[in-house]
Design goal:
The complex is a heterodimer of chains A (256) and B (288). By secondary structure, chain A is mainly alpha-helical. Chain A is built from 11 helices and 1 strand; from the N terminus they run H-H-H-E-H-H-H-H-H-H-H-H. Chain A has 2 domains: 1-49, no CATH class; 58-248, Up-down Bundle (Cytochrome Bc1 Complex, Chain C). In chain A, 64% of the residues lie in helices and 1% in strands. Chain B is mostly helical. In chain B, helix 6 (115-136) runs antiparallel to helix 11. Chain B is flat. The chains are: A mainly alpha (256), B mainly alpha (288). Chains A and B meet through helix 3, strand 1, helix 4, helix 5 and helix 6 of A and helix 2, helix 3, strand 1, helix 4 and helix 6 of B.
Chain lengths: 256, 288
């Protein structure tokens, strides 16, 4: 019986189909461990080997990885939510209500999206805190720290644009308060210092952000497109840069 | 008390409650390791050259970490529902109107500074300052391990900014701000008609200056004098301080400007809360 099973296993793993998909065997050798990482599209951002202290949770806190995981969760749940949500002022709130009461697992989907987003904000802040405490921004990682700061802002902005989409009182007024700051931008905002007299409520920087003088239907559409398309695209590109630089700047930091 | 209990139960405030535990835990973790390094010295080269294969060792860790995080997220999502209030109504302003929790430190700054500073200039300086950190911190030590002894100034400044001016202000904004953006202690009732006497005066008024032009120049002198502390310290210490000589003039200007701007916030908070100072500098174009 055991012999038979072994023969079958070998037959499968030696078949042309299997070999065309999996490019290495499963023997326990250093060569295979290296190939496993190098020849796998999902793992190849890793180096084949790292120093032992990089495995230590007490050192890394895992926060960078958790941030990326949270981003992936929001991306997957976000795409699913997009099937049920219309960014139109008349429908938006009703669609969210439908998600909660009519659509199977809609509430869970929405919860996961929201809590993953909040989790991402927490983990990205803690990640920055860890990187600072270990002095990991120092030469040669200065530029990657700058990319990280931009990614932190993008995380805030992603969360903020998503905050409006339920189109309830909480969303509406949080975004109203948040965007009111833009009125006071020096020179470019109509209530800011040194604003020229032809900068008004209807053409200043806040108007450009909201698509109106108050948070309204065009704001909803703008924030939706920023939230679902524009900002995630930029975030993905910068994340690729961030991870690539971690590798190129010498891997995870250590006292060498 | 009931208002505070309602606040605690708000699902969107769960992250802040989580941070109340997470931040002290991670600070303790970092402190323990820093103490260890400071006492025992940096690990030797031999220990650091100990390499392991990413597969299976790191990938296994990542996998286990991902499973645990997804479990926590799953339980969180099943237990607590995302909030949904009444449909949005531009004519019905809630009191207080709060920004999302991660912006509440910025909203809290609005109490002490005009919107153009609190909402635009200071956030801009925070971003610029964060990006500038690696370029102005020329201390080559403390790279890749926890330490306190080797970089005390950098740690104190960053922790003050992050813990006090960001996290604590966020918590104050979330839990202690009620109607009219007034401070309400957890055991107090949120009285929307709470009467707060507006007895704040400008700094120039406190010094007996009643004339607008003189007040303008006075305010300018105070603010300019405050930021002149940077150059004064530089010329005072330059000859004797090897650190300043190594830092160089350009880096020093940036460090001192960013540092003084950051400290200006707690100074203004103290001035407002202790002395009822409204503005330090009142000019025809802007107020600081």
């Amino acid at each position: 019986m055991n012999e038979e099973r072994k023969g079958l296993k070998e037959k499968i793993t030696n078949s042309d189909i299997w070999k065309s998909i999996f490019r290495h065997g499963y023997e326990k050798t250093g060569r295979r461990y290296t190939l496993q990482v190098l020849q796998n599209v999902w793992l190849h951002l890793h180096p084949p080997r790292i120093s032992r202290h990089a495995l230590n949770f007490r050192f890394t806190w895992c926060m960078g990885g958790i941030t990326f995981l949270m981003f992936l969760v929001t991306a997957v749940t976000g795409v699913l939510l997009m099937f049920y949500y219309r960014p139109v002022a008349e429908y938006a709130f009703g669609d969210v209500q439908a998600l909660e009461f009519d659509i199977p697992f809609g509430m869970l989907l929405r919860n996961m999206h929201r809590w993953a987003a909040h989790g991402m904000v927490i983990s990205v802040m803690l990640h920055m805190f860890r990187v600072f405490l270990t002095g990991s921004y120092k030469k040669p990682r200065e530029f990657n720290w700058a990319v990280g700061v931009i990614l932190l802002l993008i995380t805030f902005f992603l969360s903020f644009t998503g905050y409006l989409l339920p189109w309830d009182q909480l969303a509406y007024w949080a975004v109203t308060v948040g965007t009111n700051m833009a009125r006071a931008t020096p020179v470019l905002g109509h209530e800011g210092p040194f604003a020229p007299s032809d900068i008004t409520q209807a053409n200043d920087v806040r108007f450009a952000l909201l698509g109106g003088t108050i948070v309204g239907p065009s704001t909803l559409l703008r924030f939706y497109i920023l939230h679902c398309v524009a900002v995630p695209l930029v975030a993905s590109l910068l994340m690729a840069l961030h991870f690539w630089r971690v590798r190129k700047d010498g891997g995870i930091s250590g006292p060498l | 008390m009931e208002n505070f209990l309602l606040l605690i139960q708000k699902p969107d405030n769960v992250p802040i409650l989580a941070m109340l535990f997470l931040i002290p835990y991670f600070m303790w973790l970092a402190y323990k390791q820093a103490r260890q390094t400071d006492r025992m010295g940096v690990p030797s080269d031999a220990a650091l050259n100990d390499k392991v294969y990413v597969w299976p060792y790191l990938c296994r860790n990542e996998f286990i970490c991902a499973i645990i995080v997804m479990l926590v997220l799953g339980v969180w999502s099943i237990m607590i529902d995302a909030p949904l209030e009444e449909p949005s109504d531009p004519a019905k302003t809630p009191n207080p109107s709060k920004a999302p929790w991660y912006f509440l430190a910025l909203q809290e700054m609005l109490v002490y500074f005009d919107p153009w500073i609190a909402g635009v200039v200071l956030p801009g300086l925070i971003i610029a300052g964060l990006i500038a950190i690696p370029y102005i911190d020329i201390n080559p030590k403390g790279k890749g391990y926890y330490t306190i002894k080797e970089r005390p100034f950098a740690l104190v400044v960053f922790c003050f900014g992050f813990i006090i001016l960001w996290i604590v202000l966020m918590i104050v904004g979330t839990f202690l701000r009620g109607p009219g953006w007034n401070i309400f202690m957890p055991w107090q009732y949120w009285d929307p008609h709470k009467i707060v006497p507006l007895t704040n005066v400008n700094l120039s008024y406190l010094f007996g200056i009643r004339d607008d032009t003189t007040a303008n120049f006075f305010g300018f002198a105070v603010v300019a004098g405050y930021f002149a502390l940077g150059p004064i310290f530089y010329f005072w210490k330059y000859k004797t301080s090897r650190f300043l000589q190594e830092l160089g003039l350009v880096r020093y200007v940036i460090v001192s400007f960013l540092f003084l701007s950051m400290v200006a916030l707690p100074i203004k908070m103290v001035l407002r809360l202790a002395l009822n100072i409204k503005y330090v500098w009142v000019s025809p174009w802007f107020n600081i």
